[in-house]
Design goal:
This protein is mainly beta and 208 residues long. The protein has a single domain, classed as Porin (Beta Barrel). The protein is built from one helix and nine strands. An eight-stranded antiparallel β-barrel has the order 1-2-3-5-6-7-8-9. Strand 7 and strand 8 form a beta hairpin. The chain is elongated.
Length: 208
């Protein structure tokens, strides 16, 4: 949790620095760029908890894990208030330890897939606030590695699932020279297999 907040503070500081650059370069912009395609990418941190694992009974507490995440995206700004976007989102491979009735060990998640969004934006000069909603079509693999005692006896169980999840997000960003947009985003993933799944992103995009 503290590491997550530290990452948030670093991302906020970077965005503030970009805002300063944005102010300095706004005067050099030729004209407004309110519609058209854009491409970009993002780096962030994904955090989730797991309430149960296949083959494990009476897990002690929730299993919390986080890992680095990344995404690539392409979008189209219909106007300065509304955009459509398609992403490839890799939420990393969070892992953690578990302990339960007669068994303990380590688990690892692998989660990646494609997402489509509708994004609403409120422009405030070079700054903007945004909200998004979309669907995340994903593949989730859960590996459970039991310690060499108890009923598991060193076995490794693997569970593969494909599904879709509703995603909600909010963001705050800055645009300079009419083409470069940097943004901090928070996204919440409504995944059936996981609890409290969310990501914090720092993204950059080029608006054509």
């Amino acid at each position: 949790m503290f590491g997550y907040m530290s990452n948030f503070r670093r991302a906020s500081a970077l965005l503030a620095a970009l805002s300063t650059v944005g102010y300095a370069t706004t005067a050099a912009a030729d004209e407004d760029n309110n519609s058209g395609p854009y491409v970009g990418g993002g780096y962030g941190e994904f955090d989730t908890s797991v309430s149960d694992l296949e083959g494990v009974t009476d897990v002690i507490g929730d299993l919390d894990a986080d890992d680095s995440a990344w995404k690539l995206f392409f979008g189209w700004r219909i106007n300065k208030w509304l955009s459509l976007e398609a992403d490839y989102v890799d939420l990393g491979a969070p892992r953690g330890d578990f302990a339960g009735s007669g068994s303990s060990g380590e688990y690892q998640l692998d989660l990646a897939g494609f997402a489509g969004y509708v994004i609403g934006t409120l422009p405030l000069g070079i700054f903007e606030l945004s909200g998004k909603v979309g669907y995340y079509f994903h593949d989730l693999t859960i590996n459970t590695d039991f310690d060499n005692f108890g009923s598991g006896n060193g076995d490794v169980l693997e569970s593969d699932n494909s599904g879709e999840a509703v995603v909600y997000g909010i963001g705050a960003g800055v645009t300079f020279i009419d083409h470069i947009n940097a943004k901090i985003e928070y996204e919440l993933f409504d995944l059936d297999e996981l609890d409290d799944a969310y990501a914090l992103w720092l993204t950059a995009a080029w608006r054509f």
